[in-house]
Design goal:
By secondary structure, the protein is an all-alpha fold. It folds into 2 domains: 2-198; 219-299, no CATH class. It is built from 13 helices and 2 strands. 43% of the residues are buried.
Length: 304
């Protein structure tokens, strides 16, 4: 019992670190539609911390009740990536209600067990178990081709271990407090790595002495550093959509440039320079579906 109590204290400390890293990430992402995802991540970490504190204090001795609490935490754990996938303005605000509704649906078996059948285990349908696994994997895939790939991988592995009883073929897995503690530390490590990367990368690029550009007229400024910063913030799903939309417009209007997942590429510039203004305007309009003007100014190459 003492060993298990120590394991839950480790979980509590890891949850506090994860919540702090999520809060830092939300501050660094301010002005973008990724902020609600950071809030969901902080809330999920706080919920896991409360569960760990309850267990460390000797509560949740009933296995059925403990499983119901973990399922409620699992419902919150899948919310951040769902929030990111709906992160297009202006719908991103209403989308959070959809995320909350899905979290309620995931946690419904726990509520049913606690309120309707006290003392019984939560009956989670196999389809729901597969859905949770898919959501966890999508979170890793969304950032697999970004600088946050390692951090996302750590979070996915840790989450999969923490939620193992609610994933396919995990119903018979016995509780293991120290395994939970190790998984919580893995998640906390991934969260801290992501926050440090988000803070350090723009500083390194500014220190590299990049050429100043006027954001208003240069598509390389709008779709260079700004697009790459958005790619790191929202991941591949929305970044590829922006790439598709911009390149469609560029092809229709004959601009000598293309946008790739790795950034802006300019070809033969011996054409009417007016295309640059139009391309910058189009790029800004696409990015503004996800970020504010202040965010664009903070992440432009000239740092203004």
């Amino acid at each position: 019992m003492v060993v298990a109590s120590h394991a839950w204290l480790v979980c509590l400390a890891a949850a506090a670190v994860t919540a702090a890293a999520a809060a830092a990430g939300g501050f660094l992402a301010r002005g973008s539609t990724a902020v609600p995802a950071a809030v969901w991540a902080a809330v999920a970490a706080a919920a896991f911390g409360l569960e760990a504190a309850w267990r460390a204090g000797g509560g949740l001795r009933d296995p059925a009740t403990a499983d119901c609490c973990r399922l409620a935490v699992a419902a919150l754990a899948v919310c951040p990536i769902l929030s990111v996938l709906g992160g297009k303005r202006p719908q991103h605000g209403v989308w959070q209600f959809i995320v909350a509704t899905l979290a309620g649906v995931v946690a419904l078996p726990a509520a049913s067990a606690l309120l309707v059948r006290p003392g019984s285990a939560a009956d989670v349908h196999p389809l729901q178990r597969w859905l949770m696994l898919v959501i966890v994997l999508v979170a890793g895939m969304n950032y697999a081709a970004t600088r946050h790939a390692a951090a996302a991988g750590l979070v996915v592995v840790g989450q999969a271990i923490l939620l193992r009883r609610w994933l396919p073929f995990g119903a018979a897995v016995p509780p293991a407090p120290w395994l939970d503690a190790a998984a919580a530390c893995v998640v906390a490590t991934g969260a801290v790595v992501a926050a440090v990367q988000s803070f350090a990368w723009p500083a390194r690029r500014r220190a590299a002495g990049l050429r100043e550009r006027r954001v208003a007229d240069d598509p390389a400024a709008v779709l260079g550093d700004s697009f790459l910063a958005l790619r790191e913030t929202l991941g591949a799903a929305w970044s590829l959509r922006i790439v598709e939309r911009f390149n469609t417009v560029a092809a229709e209007r004959g601009w000598p440039c293309r946008l790739g997942f790795d950034g802006f590429h300019e070809g033969d510039a011996e054409t009417d320079p007016a295309w640059r203004r139009d391309a910058a305007r189009t790029g800004r309009a696409l990015l503004r579906r996800f970020v504010t003007s202040d965010w664009l100014r903070r992440h432009a190459a000239d740092g203004r």
